[in-house]
Amino acid sequence: MSGIKTLGQFIIEKQADFSYAKGELSRLLRDIGIAAKIVNREVNKAGLVDILGDAGTVNIQGEGQKKLDVFANTQFIAALTSGGECCIVATEEEDDFVPIDSPVSKNAKYIVCIDPLDGSSNIDVNVAVGTIFSIYRRKSMEGLATLADVLQKGTEQVAAGYVIYGSSTMLVYTTGKGVNGFTLDPSIGEFCLSHPNMKVPKDGSIYSINEGNYVHFPMGVKKYIKYAQVHDEASNRPYTSRYIGSMVADIHRNLIKGGIYIYPTTASSPNGKLRLLYECNPMAFIVEQAGGTASDGFRRILEIEPVELHQRSSIFIGSEKMVKMAEEMMATYAVSDSNTKIA
Ligand code: AHG
Ligand code: MN
Ligand code: MN
Description:
- By secondary structure, the chain is of the alpha+beta class.
- The protein has two domains: 7-195, Fructose-1,6-Bisphosphatase, Chain A, domain 1, CATH 3.30.540; 206-342, D-Maltodextrin-Binding Protein, domain 2, CATH 3.40.190.
- Helices cover 31% and strands 23% of the residues.
- The strands form four sheets. Strands 4-3-5-6-7-8-9-10 form an eight-stranded mixed sheet, with helices on both faces. Strands 12-11-13-17-15 form a five-stranded mixed sheet, with helices on both faces.
- Residues 69, 92, 115, 117-118, 120 line the site of one manganese (II) ion (MN).
- Belongs to the FBPase class 1 family.
Protein backbone atom coordinates (compact mmCIF):
# COMPACT_ATOMS: atom_id res chain seq x y z
CA MET A 1 0.00 0.00 0.00
CA SER A 2 3.01 2.32 0.14
CA GLY A 3 2.48 5.54 -1.81
CA ILE A 4 -1.31 5.27 -1.77
CA LYS A 5 -3.33 7.65 0.35
CA THR A 6 -7.03 6.93 0.60
CA LEU A 7 -9.70 9.58 1.04
CA GLY A 8 -10.33 8.29 4.56
CA GLN A 9 -6.65 8.53 5.53
CA PHE A 10 -6.36 11.99 3.98
CA ILE A 11 -9.43 13.34 5.78
CA ILE A 12 -8.17 12.16 9.14
CA GLU A 13 -4.72 13.57 8.47
CA LYS A 14 -6.20 16.94 7.54
CA GLN A 15 -8.80 17.17 10.25
CA ALA A 16 -6.30 18.96 12.47
CA ASP A 17 -6.89 21.92 10.10
CA PHE A 18 -10.59 22.12 10.92
CA SER A 19 -11.26 24.83 13.42
CA TYR A 20 -14.14 22.93 15.03
CA ALA A 21 -16.02 19.63 15.12
CA LYS A 22 -13.09 17.71 13.74
CA GLY A 23 -14.36 14.15 13.82
CA GLU A 24 -17.89 15.12 12.79
CA LEU A 25 -16.98 16.82 9.53
CA SER A 26 -14.63 13.95 8.74
CA ARG A 27 -17.45 11.48 9.24
CA LEU A 28 -19.78 13.54 7.08
CA LEU A 29 -17.29 13.55 4.22
CA ARG A 30 -16.84 9.82 4.68
CA ASP A 31 -20.64 9.29 4.44
CA ILE A 32 -20.76 11.27 1.18
CA GLY A 33 -17.86 9.18 -0.18
CA ILE A 34 -19.75 5.96 0.63
CA ALA A 35 -22.92 7.10 -1.15
CA ALA A 36 -20.82 8.23 -4.13
CA LYS A 37 -19.39 4.72 -4.46
CA ILE A 38 -22.88 3.22 -4.48
CA VAL A 39 -24.05 5.69 -7.14
CA ASN A 40 -20.88 4.98 -9.12
CA ARG A 41 -21.68 1.28 -9.08
CA GLU A 42 -25.12 1.89 -10.61
CA VAL A 43 -23.85 4.45 -13.15
CA ASN A 44 -21.28 1.87 -14.28
CA LYS A 45 -23.92 -0.80 -14.72
CA ALA A 46 -26.36 1.48 -16.57
CA GLY A 47 -27.54 -0.32 -19.66
CA LEU A 48 -27.24 -3.72 -18.02
CA VAL A 49 -29.79 -3.04 -15.31
CA ASP A 50 -33.06 -1.17 -15.51
CA ILE A 51 -31.69 2.17 -14.34
CA LEU A 52 -31.69 4.26 -17.54
CA GLY A 53 -34.51 6.51 -18.66
CA ASP A 54 -37.22 8.59 -17.06
CA ALA A 55 -38.63 7.93 -13.63
CA GLY A 56 -41.99 9.32 -14.80
CA THR A 57 -41.92 12.02 -12.12
CA VAL A 58 -41.20 15.76 -12.18
CA ASN A 59 -39.26 17.77 -9.59
CA ILE A 60 -40.36 21.15 -8.20
CA GLN A 61 -38.49 22.87 -10.99
CA GLY A 62 -40.64 21.17 -13.60
CA GLU A 63 -37.78 18.96 -14.79
CA GLY A 64 -38.50 15.33 -15.56
CA GLN A 65 -36.60 13.09 -13.15
CA LYS A 66 -34.47 10.24 -14.43
CA LYS A 67 -34.34 6.95 -12.58
CA LEU A 68 -30.72 7.66 -11.67
CA ASP A 69 -31.67 11.12 -10.32
CA VAL A 70 -34.09 9.44 -7.94
CA PHE A 71 -31.68 6.60 -7.08
CA ALA A 72 -28.80 8.99 -6.32
CA ASN A 73 -31.05 11.23 -4.24
CA THR A 74 -32.21 8.25 -2.15
CA GLN A 75 -28.66 6.99 -1.63
CA PHE A 76 -27.25 10.32 -0.45
CA ILE A 77 -30.16 10.96 1.91
CA ALA A 78 -29.84 7.42 3.30
CA ALA A 79 -26.08 7.77 3.87
CA LEU A 80 -26.53 11.16 5.54
CA THR A 81 -29.36 9.82 7.70
CA SER A 82 -27.47 6.81 8.99
CA GLY A 83 -24.21 8.78 9.34
CA GLY A 84 -25.69 10.95 12.10
CA GLU A 85 -23.84 14.23 11.37
CA CYS A 86 -26.39 15.96 9.14
CA CYS A 87 -29.61 17.62 10.37
CA ILE A 88 -30.98 18.86 7.03
CA VAL A 89 -30.51 17.86 3.42
CA ALA A 90 -31.54 20.35 0.75
CA THR A 91 -31.63 18.58 -2.59
CA GLU A 92 -32.54 19.40 -6.16
CA GLU A 93 -34.92 16.49 -6.20
CA GLU A 94 -37.15 17.42 -3.25
CA ASP A 95 -39.59 20.36 -3.12
CA ASP A 96 -38.71 21.22 0.46
CA PHE A 97 -35.64 20.64 2.59
CA VAL A 98 -35.50 17.21 4.24
CA PRO A 99 -35.09 17.29 8.03
CA ILE A 100 -33.10 14.32 9.27
CA ASP A 101 -34.80 13.08 12.36
CA SER A 102 -33.15 9.87 13.44
CA PRO A 103 -31.90 8.80 16.88
CA VAL A 104 -28.28 9.07 15.73
CA SER A 105 -28.80 12.61 14.35
CA LYS A 106 -29.96 14.26 17.58
CA ASN A 107 -26.88 16.48 17.88
CA ALA A 108 -26.12 16.81 14.19
CA LYS A 109 -24.51 20.15 13.35
CA TYR A 110 -24.35 20.13 9.58
CA ILE A 111 -26.54 21.13 6.66
CA VAL A 112 -25.89 19.46 3.29
CA CYS A 113 -27.10 20.97 0.01
CA ILE A 114 -26.80 18.52 -2.86
CA ASP A 115 -27.34 18.00 -6.56
CA PRO A 116 -27.37 14.18 -6.37
CA LEU A 117 -26.93 13.71 -10.09
CA ASP A 118 -25.74 16.54 -12.29
CA GLY A 119 -26.00 16.33 -16.06
CA SER A 120 -29.14 14.23 -16.22
CA SER A 121 -29.48 14.70 -19.97
CA ASN A 122 -26.21 12.77 -20.39
CA ILE A 123 -27.20 9.72 -18.34
CA ASP A 124 -28.73 7.72 -21.15
CA VAL A 125 -25.86 8.28 -23.59
CA ASN A 126 -22.83 7.20 -21.55
CA VAL A 127 -21.43 10.71 -21.04
CA ALA A 128 -19.96 11.92 -17.74
CA VAL A 129 -22.35 12.90 -14.98
CA GLY A 130 -21.65 14.09 -11.44
CA THR A 131 -22.73 14.87 -7.90
CA ILE A 132 -22.24 18.29 -6.28
CA PHE A 133 -22.39 18.93 -2.53
CA SER A 134 -22.07 21.84 -0.17
CA ILE A 135 -21.75 21.69 3.63
CA TYR A 136 -22.74 24.38 6.13
CA ARG A 137 -22.71 24.47 9.88
CA ARG A 138 -26.10 24.86 11.47
CA LYS A 139 -26.62 28.41 12.86
CA SER A 140 -29.58 27.91 15.18
CA MET A 141 -28.65 26.64 18.62
CA GLU A 142 -31.71 24.67 19.65
CA GLY A 143 -34.84 22.93 18.42
CA LEU A 144 -35.19 21.67 14.88
CA ALA A 145 -33.02 23.29 12.25
CA THR A 146 -34.99 25.56 9.90
CA LEU A 147 -34.92 27.05 6.40
CA ALA A 148 -32.85 29.93 7.80
CA ASP A 149 -30.11 27.40 8.58
CA VAL A 150 -30.09 26.37 4.92
CA LEU A 151 -30.18 29.87 3.40
CA GLN A 152 -26.59 30.83 4.15
CA LYS A 153 -24.25 32.68 1.83
CA GLY A 154 -21.66 30.66 -0.03
CA THR A 155 -18.92 32.28 2.04
CA GLU A 156 -20.25 30.32 5.03
CA GLN A 157 -19.55 26.91 3.46
CA VAL A 158 -17.28 24.73 5.56
CA ALA A 159 -16.71 22.22 2.78
CA ALA A 160 -17.82 21.56 -0.78
CA GLY A 161 -17.06 18.98 -3.40
CA TYR A 162 -18.09 17.13 -6.47
CA VAL A 163 -17.90 13.61 -7.78
CA ILE A 164 -17.41 13.04 -11.49
CA TYR A 165 -18.53 9.68 -12.87
CA GLY A 166 -16.46 9.76 -16.04
CA SER A 167 -13.84 7.66 -17.77
CA SER A 168 -12.63 7.29 -14.21
CA THR A 169 -14.55 8.33 -11.10
CA MET A 170 -13.13 11.16 -9.04
CA LEU A 171 -14.07 12.97 -5.86
CA VAL A 172 -12.75 16.53 -5.54
CA TYR A 173 -13.32 18.55 -2.40
CA THR A 174 -12.24 21.53 -0.34
CA THR A 175 -12.59 22.47 3.30
CA GLY A 176 -11.29 25.97 2.60
CA LYS A 177 -7.63 25.02 2.57
CA GLY A 178 -7.03 24.21 -1.07
CA VAL A 179 -8.54 21.58 -3.32
CA ASN A 180 -7.65 17.91 -3.54
CA GLY A 181 -8.80 15.26 -6.00
CA PHE A 182 -9.14 11.51 -5.44
CA THR A 183 -9.59 8.84 -8.09
CA LEU A 184 -11.62 5.74 -7.34
CA ASP A 185 -9.49 2.62 -7.63
CA PRO A 186 -12.12 0.00 -8.46
CA SER A 187 -9.79 -2.84 -7.52
CA ILE A 188 -9.76 -1.79 -3.86
CA GLY A 189 -12.99 0.26 -3.83
CA GLU A 190 -11.26 3.34 -2.41
CA PHE A 191 -10.85 6.93 -3.53
CA CYS A 192 -7.07 7.51 -3.63
CA LEU A 193 -5.29 10.87 -3.70
CA SER A 194 -4.35 11.51 -7.33
CA HIS A 195 -4.60 15.31 -7.75
CA PRO A 196 -3.12 17.02 -4.67
CA ASN A 197 -3.46 20.80 -4.33
CA MET A 198 -5.32 21.43 -7.59
CA LYS A 199 -4.83 24.87 -9.16
CA VAL A 200 -6.77 26.36 -12.03
CA PRO A 201 -4.51 28.19 -14.51
CA LYS A 202 -4.93 32.00 -14.25
CA ASP A 203 -5.71 32.14 -17.96
CA GLY A 204 -6.95 29.56 -20.42
CA SER A 205 -8.21 29.02 -23.94
CA ILE A 206 -11.39 26.95 -23.53
CA TYR A 207 -14.87 28.47 -23.34
CA SER A 208 -17.88 26.37 -22.38
CA ILE A 209 -21.40 27.63 -22.99
CA ASN A 210 -24.56 26.31 -24.65
CA GLU A 211 -24.23 28.45 -27.75
CA GLY A 212 -27.56 27.21 -29.08
CA ASN A 213 -29.12 29.81 -26.80
CA TYR A 214 -27.02 32.61 -28.34
CA VAL A 215 -29.94 34.68 -29.55
CA HIS A 216 -31.31 34.84 -25.98
CA PHE A 217 -28.05 35.81 -24.25
CA PRO A 218 -27.31 39.21 -22.70
CA MET A 219 -25.27 41.51 -24.96
CA GLY A 220 -22.17 41.15 -22.75
CA VAL A 221 -22.16 37.37 -23.27
CA LYS A 222 -22.66 37.73 -27.03
CA LYS A 223 -19.70 40.12 -27.15
CA TYR A 224 -17.57 37.75 -25.07
CA ILE A 225 -18.31 34.86 -27.43
CA LYS A 226 -17.33 37.01 -30.40
CA TYR A 227 -14.15 38.04 -28.54
CA ALA A 228 -13.37 34.33 -27.92
CA GLN A 229 -13.65 33.66 -31.66
CA VAL A 230 -11.36 36.45 -32.88
CA HIS A 231 -7.96 35.47 -34.25
CA ASP A 232 -5.22 36.90 -31.98
CA GLU A 233 -2.05 34.90 -31.50
CA ALA A 234 -0.87 36.91 -28.49
CA SER A 235 -3.89 35.85 -26.44
CA ASN A 236 -4.18 32.38 -27.94
CA ARG A 237 -7.47 33.16 -29.69
CA PRO A 238 -9.65 31.88 -31.15
CA TYR A 239 -10.39 29.86 -28.04
CA THR A 240 -11.53 26.25 -28.19
CA SER A 241 -15.22 25.60 -27.56
CA ARG A 242 -16.03 22.60 -25.33
CA TYR A 243 -19.48 21.98 -23.86
CA ILE A 244 -20.44 18.63 -22.38
CA GLY A 245 -23.71 19.70 -20.77
CA SER A 246 -22.74 18.34 -17.35
CA MET A 247 -21.60 21.30 -15.29
CA VAL A 248 -19.39 19.05 -13.16
CA ALA A 249 -17.56 17.64 -16.18
CA ASP A 250 -17.20 21.00 -17.93
CA ILE A 251 -15.85 22.71 -14.82
CA HIS A 252 -13.62 19.75 -13.93
CA ARG A 253 -11.97 19.95 -17.35
CA ASN A 254 -11.55 23.73 -17.13
CA LEU A 255 -10.18 23.42 -13.59
CA ILE A 256 -7.40 21.23 -14.88
CA LYS A 257 -6.75 22.85 -18.26
CA GLY A 258 -7.86 26.45 -17.70
CA GLY A 259 -11.03 27.89 -19.18
CA ILE A 260 -14.34 29.55 -18.51
CA TYR A 261 -17.78 27.99 -18.03
CA ILE A 262 -20.75 30.28 -18.51
CA TYR A 263 -24.43 29.68 -17.89
CA PRO A 264 -25.90 33.17 -18.22
CA THR A 265 -29.40 34.51 -17.85
CA THR A 266 -31.44 33.93 -20.97
CA ALA A 267 -34.77 35.22 -22.20
CA SER A 268 -36.50 32.06 -20.95
CA SER A 269 -34.46 31.83 -17.69
CA PRO A 270 -34.15 35.48 -16.58
CA ASN A 271 -32.44 34.41 -13.32
CA GLY A 272 -30.21 31.81 -14.96
CA LYS A 273 -30.77 28.06 -14.93
CA LEU A 274 -28.34 26.68 -12.38
CA ARG A 275 -29.22 26.57 -8.71
CA LEU A 276 -27.30 28.71 -6.23
CA LEU A 277 -27.27 26.42 -3.20
CA TYR A 278 -26.24 23.10 -4.68
CA GLU A 279 -24.64 23.94 -8.03
CA CYS A 280 -23.19 27.47 -8.12
CA ASN A 281 -22.01 27.91 -4.51
CA PRO A 282 -20.13 24.62 -4.13
CA MET A 283 -18.47 24.92 -7.54
CA ALA A 284 -17.59 28.56 -6.77
CA PHE A 285 -16.01 27.59 -3.44
CA ILE A 286 -13.93 24.87 -5.09
CA VAL A 287 -12.82 27.03 -8.01
CA GLU A 288 -11.91 29.97 -5.75
CA GLN A 289 -9.96 27.61 -3.51
CA ALA A 290 -8.08 26.46 -6.63
CA GLY A 291 -7.19 30.09 -7.43
CA GLY A 292 -10.00 30.81 -9.91
CA THR A 293 -12.98 33.16 -9.94
CA ALA A 294 -16.76 32.69 -9.84
CA SER A 295 -19.20 35.48 -10.63
CA ASP A 296 -22.83 35.91 -11.67
CA GLY A 297 -21.54 38.38 -14.25
CA PHE A 298 -21.51 41.30 -11.84
CA ARG A 299 -20.75 40.05 -8.33
CA ARG A 300 -19.05 37.22 -6.53
CA ILE A 301 -21.26 34.12 -6.41
CA LEU A 302 -20.27 33.35 -2.82
CA GLU A 303 -21.61 36.71 -1.60
CA ILE A 304 -25.11 36.34 -3.01
CA GLU A 305 -27.69 36.31 -0.21
CA PRO A 306 -30.00 33.33 -0.80
CA VAL A 307 -33.70 33.92 -0.24
CA GLU A 308 -35.14 30.61 -1.42
CA LEU A 309 -34.18 26.96 -1.52
CA HIS A 310 -34.12 26.42 -5.27
CA GLN A 311 -32.90 29.91 -6.14
CA ARG A 312 -31.17 30.20 -9.50
CA SER A 313 -28.20 32.25 -10.58
CA SER A 314 -26.23 32.99 -13.69
CA ILE A 315 -22.62 31.85 -13.45
CA PHE A 316 -19.26 32.76 -15.01
CA ILE A 317 -16.62 30.51 -13.48
CA GLY A 318 -13.05 29.41 -14.11
CA SER A 319 -9.71 31.02 -14.90
CA GLU A 320 -9.45 34.43 -13.26
CA LYS A 321 -8.43 36.40 -16.36
CA MET A 322 -11.19 34.94 -18.51
CA VAL A 323 -13.91 35.57 -15.92
CA LYS A 324 -12.68 39.15 -15.39
CA MET A 325 -12.84 39.81 -19.14
CA ALA A 326 -16.37 38.44 -19.34
CA GLU A 327 -17.39 40.56 -16.33
CA GLU A 328 -15.99 43.66 -18.04
CA MET A 329 -18.11 42.96 -21.08
CA MET A 330 -21.19 42.36 -18.93
CA ALA A 331 -20.65 45.74 -17.24
CA THR A 332 -19.98 47.54 -20.53
CA TYR A 333 -23.08 46.22 -22.28
CA ALA A 334 -25.50 46.09 -19.34
CA VAL A 335 -27.08 49.33 -20.50
CA SER A 336 -27.78 48.03 -23.98
CA ASP A 337 -29.56 45.02 -22.41
CA SER A 338 -31.82 47.25 -20.37
CA ASN A 339 -32.70 49.14 -23.58
CA THR A 340 -33.30 46.00 -25.60
CA LYS A 341 -36.42 43.97 -25.21
CA ILE A 342 -35.27 40.41 -25.92
CA ALA A 343 -37.90 38.51 -27.85
P1 AHG B 1 -29.10 18.77 -13.68
O1 AHG B 1 -28.92 17.55 -14.52
O2 AHG B 1 -28.66 18.57 -12.26
O3 AHG B 1 -30.49 19.36 -13.78
O4 AHG B 1 -28.09 19.88 -14.18
C1 AHG B 1 -27.95 20.13 -15.55
C2 AHG B 1 -27.28 21.45 -15.69
C3 AHG B 1 -25.78 21.42 -15.79
O5 AHG B 1 -25.15 20.30 -15.35
C4 AHG B 1 -25.49 21.63 -17.24
O6 AHG B 1 -24.31 22.29 -17.46
C5 AHG B 1 -26.67 22.39 -17.71
O7 AHG B 1 -27.75 22.04 -16.87
C6 AHG B 1 -27.00 22.06 -19.12
O8 AHG B 1 -28.07 22.82 -19.50
P2 AHG B 1 -28.42 23.04 -21.04
O9 AHG B 1 -28.91 21.73 -21.54
O10 AHG B 1 -29.50 24.10 -21.00
O11 AHG B 1 -27.17 23.52 -21.72
MN1 MN C 1 -27.12 19.96 -11.92
MN1 MN D 1 -29.29 17.08 -10.86
